[in-house]
Amino acid sequence: VQLQESGPGLVKPSQTLSLTCTVSGGSITSNFYAWSWIRQPPGKGLERIVSITFSGDTYISPSLESRTSISRDTSNNQFTLQLSSVTPEDTAVYYCTRGTSASGYDYWGQGRQVTVSS
Q1: How far, in Å, CA of 83 to CA of 102, rounded?
Q2: pLDDT digits (tens, 9 = 90+) for 65-113
């Protein structure tokens, strides 16, 4: 399984950050898997932003719920993060991942550096 993030690396404050994860070697509708966006700000730990399961159920981090959405395109095996009203504090490396409740995150994309700056 391979995951690849794509999207702009620079976003201006107050705009919407949009990143797409393209999955190959496995289907995003395969039973039991959840697909997540995780970020790591500079000098800080990993933070899960949002997940979408194989059946389309979603989980959004409470701290980001008002600004976050996730969608998927099953025909192209992709899922997309949208984070609105960004600030410089949203600057981070953004990863897309696959995981299960039993095994945790087993596949990761290489990460996409996103900088929020005017």
Answers
A1: 28
A2: 999 999 999 999 999 999 999 999 999 999 999 998 888 999 999 999 9
d(CA 29, CA 48): 20
User: Quick check: 114 and 19 in contact, CB under 8 A?
Assistant: yes
Angle at 16 between CA 10 and CA 20, to 5 degrees: 75
Contact 91, 110 (CB under 8 A): no
- The rounded distance, in Å, linking the Cα atoms of 90 and 40 is 9
What is d(CA 32, CA 90) in angstroms, rounded to the nearest whole number? 30
- Which burial class, exposed, middle or buried, applies to 23 when counting CB atoms under 10 A from its CB (0-12, 13-18, 19+)? buried
